[in-house]
Amino acid sequence: MILKRGWGFALIPLLISLAVATDPPVGLGSRYPNIAETDRGFALCWFEPKGDAFQLKMSEYDGQRWADPVLIREGSDFFVNWADFPSIYYAGEHWFAAHWPQKSGDGPYDYDVKVSQSFDRGQSWTKPVTAHRDGKKGEHGFVSFFMDPKGSLALAWLDGRKMTAGHGDHGYGAMNLFTTTLDKSGNLGPETLLDDKVCECCPTSVAETNDGIVLAYRDRSDSEIRDMYAVRLSGTEWTSPAPIHSDNWKIAGCPVNGPKLATKGNMLASVWFTSPDETPQVLFALSNDNGKSFQAPIRLDGGTPIGRTDILWLSGRKALTSWMEYGEEITHIVFRTVSIDGRLGKPFIAAEIDAGRASGYPVITRIGRKIFLSWTSSGETGKVESKWIPVSKL
Question: For residue 106, what are the contacts with CB-CB under 8 A and spacing of at least 6?
């Protein structure tokens, strides 16, 4: 199977079938999965329809079996969107946090960030808290959870309190990037503005490094350059925004494609989609100093990427990246390994999927010697799909 002539060689499809028993307990119409690593394995969360409402559910996989699905929240006012989807986070000692977007007004992007916590491994959940305190109708989303250096649960989000019109309109205000903390009683800490002008609808990503927190996101300059930036929290102060790399991608609109980070020791790896000079590409950059600086990026794709990247470490010397890419007749999720010395593994087709928005953002995690991949299929039988891929095949 050939992905595209631009690769210069044939890709090797992964024709792997594993026991149905390892499939997550998702239902018809489920969509937009997200993953959090835990001390037992990993947890998966997703939206699932129920009548005129949606349920936010989760299940934990311990390497042998999936736990019975748990209901986090149900509502008819969820903002169910392919790009801004719920997340689950494990803080240790049976403590989970979850967020979801919830409508706050009649505008197409009027929605809030709602957060709930569980202290009994997902069996019960606290009353939801709105993470921001501006009280304005508008977009609030694209959340990343983390533990701050003081051991408090924290989150960052894109905040549209200063925007005055819908997406695609000229002359609207700037999207902001904020962070705050949330204690176990549901009390919010101070809001901190990290960047006063960022891209409007690209997901964020956080890494908890050996030297504090690194938060990556897509920036937006006054001249409409929308490159990947990062801020760091080491101690009590956040650094000023700085580029991961100056791609110089000028685009007068949000490309709905954010960065992903993964940390190992003092190394921090980042992967992202960009398209300077109308040349779409997926780039990988490595930091050897916990995100203080990044090496020159390496291009990974075969010439026709869509983006929607993810990344994890396979070892202390090799990372696994994933992204979506157009093929000759169908779209693929592609895997490719990158060594810390810059060597690239052969690209593999991990799955064939729909090219459209319905596929959402494919996510990956590792447990033992297997990679778990999940995405959303469309159509009448559409649901959260998944696949297990042996590390030995990569």
Answer: none
Query: For residue 346, what are the domain limits?
Result: 5-393
Residue 382 — φ and ψ, nearest 5°? -65, 145
| DSSP states of 273-312 | EE-GGG--EEEEEEESSTTS--PPPEE---S-EEEEEEEE
148-161: b or e for each residue (b if 16 or more CB lie within 10 Å)? beeeebbbbbbbbb
Using CA atoms, how far residue 101 sits from 50, 205, 258, 360, in Å, is: 17, 17, 18, 15
Q: How many domains does the chain have?
A: 1
As a whole number of Å, the CA-based R_g of the chain is: 20
pLDDT in tens, 130-152: 999 999 999 999 999 999 988 99
What per-residue confidence (pLDDT) applies to 331?
95
What are 137's two structure tokens?
């109708």
Tokens representing residue 225 in the block: 């350059």
Report the predicted TM-score, pTM, of the whole model to 2 decimal places: 0.92
What SS3 class is residue 5?
helix
Q: Output the six-digit token pair for 367.
A: 């447990």
Q: Is residue 214 within 8 Å of residue 203, measured between CB atoms?
A: no
